[in-house]
Amino acid sequence: MLDILIARLQQGHKTIAYPRGEPPALPPHFRGLPILDVSKCPQGCQACADSCPTQAIDLRQAPILDLGRCLFCAECQESCPEKAITYQADYKMAVRRREDLRLPAGGKLSLAHELQGKIKKLFGRSLKLRVVSAGGCNACEADVNVLTTIGWDLGRFGVDFVASPRHADGLIITGAASENMKLALKKTYEAVPDPKIVIAVGACAISGGPYINHPEVLNGASAVVPVDLFIPGCPPHPLTILDGLLRLLGKLKSAHPTAV
Amino acid sequence: MSIHRHLPALIAGRAIKRQSIPDLPLEEFQQAIVESVEEGWRVVSLFGSPDAGGTVHLYVVLADDHGSRLYVGSTTLSNREYPSLTSRCTQVHLFERELAEQCQVKVTGHPWLKPLRFQRPIFSASHVGAIAEDCVSPSPGVMDFYEVTGEEVHEVAVGPVHAGVIEPGHFRFQCHGERIFHLEISLGYQHRGVERALLAGPNNRSIHYAQTLCGDTTIGHTTAYCQVVEALAKCQKTARAQTIRAIALELERLANHVGDLGAMSGDVGFLPTASHCGRLRGEFLNMTAALCGSRFGRGLICPGGVRFDLDAAAVRGLLAKLELCGRQTRQAVELLWNASSVMARFEEIGVVSRDIATELGLVGPAARASGLARDARHDHPSGLFRFTHIPVSVWESGDVFARGYLRWLEIQRSLDFIGTQLKSLPAGAISSAVGNLSPDHLAVAMVEGWRGEVCHVALTNATGRFERYKVMDPSFHNWPGLAMAVRAGEISDFPLCNKSFSLSYCGHDL
Predict the structure, then answer these.
(1) How many structural domains comprise chain B?
(2) Is the pTM of this model over 0.90?
(3) Do A177 and A242 fall into the same domain?
(4) Label partner for B201 (CA 20 to 30 A): which of A6, B153, B183, B296?
């Protein structure tokens, strides 16, 4: 018993100060929000679009970066002769509508706005989520799960992951929505009582990610259920996921007005 | 006649010409498998590869772990019929089910022929003419499960959606009261068609498939993929690149082993270690992120070497963090072994005997916890492990405790290893140029990921493209081990046994 108490004392308090304090430091090579500076683009150059494994860069008309498809893999950055594409340290990328992830070059991302009306009143202080993994690589699941560790302590925001859809206010969906999970995903959604929300975490759940257009997948959660929050990344950093959840619940504004 | 002794040998991370692989008559091919396994070799991989005309060729990769050699054989299935070997050689059980499903081979006499992943055949578009239109798989989870009947015998069905934040799979228990008679595991829910999509590669998506075969083993699988490509392209890596890859591989092992010890602790309701290890796992992931920006090592490893270098300040930072986290991990983990309430739940639960582990061909910590000194870093070393050795940790008891304690032993070895390598990082470039892949070759990579042996096999065609790319996640070998571990145990111990194996669904389902 004594060694348990000593360990507790020595390991110390580890929950991050964010959102009241600063967010945890991100690593030097962190790849957050990508920015394309078209003024640097040589005439007719397609190098970035050609290198992209998921066709997230569309240069056919006005250049568009689709963050919903982006794997944040930096192939484009490496292929660009003029260094016109760079990844920022900006981790804030969650949006409410799929089309908001199609970012025009030089455009600003319209980050997720909070729930409104009755649903805000119901879920604003207590949101219970069921996580459904549906045809991905388990990295998104891992970094969703990390939010429940003492470092992030998701419970302090009234958000918890629950064991049954019957206990849940909504779903977090990861994975590209495989054919083989279609029925289970649909049934799980139907088992959640109304009103309910759905959060798609990661490139797979938003667009199919690396498996986009495989006949074995449905190119994301939207093919099966309506989605209310899209959190891009492959996988998204836990901070990106937390930011999305807090925006949805309107908790960022009150805790850390400058972060919004 | 020992046919297997005459098969061509290769070592992990090398390629051989396809013409040097004998096309054996089917009986001799099967005899080679059975006899070599009787002699103590293992079936690393057994897979079908349809050619342009739709004829299926079988390939087998056998491992002589003591001799550090792999042996390759092949045969041609002229009429797409294959008599099952499973009743003579348990290790091929899942391989044969895969073969029936992936290549539409008629496997006869298999005692347990059921869908494995509920997948489409792997035939690419050019073969479509050769397959029947009605080859679409039945619905996932729909099959005849093994059933026990009798008074007070009941069935428990769990999944595919589970209570925790974990991947989908279906478990069907036959129980008598609390006691498990039999567990049947039905997977495939994570199937996303990766092996089929890798055909005709490499292309700009191939490495991203490798990175997402199994998200928590990104380094293990990407290293294996790159080793295959480099073997086919005859690319020599620099010492610095090899060292950074090895550091990343051991960091991946640390993060997952620490996380698993925390999860096992949580499953027996011992929250101190669960809390500390849950956080410390994240710290080790953050160390991987310090190498490359991604907590899972995405983007770090590329054909020819690694993409990000380490400067002196980064090395100092990593060493300091390694020392601190190592110390904190020791404190958190040692609480487990000193808590009688934990040990009462860990010891003699979920026992897999050495004989069962051998028969099933288990790999990784699951095999080593049952007394098998089996570690690809030692038996089939590639990269830095050809020059620097990590002692193989082995424990004999085969129970939940053994699988937990073994992780702790490996954590200590990996901490030492990373510290040593960071202090003596060789100078030089971090990547080398990679040319075209040799046509008509076969290459095998073996990497000891944190769950065990990650094996990739690539077969190139006449133009140097992948005619077949076979991925073996260690979970493929180890899922049957879990089913055996819980047999005759209490159903309430299943979650704990499951955590002690900590297997991958996506790595199995591909």
Answers:
(1) 2
(2) yes
(3) yes
(4) B296
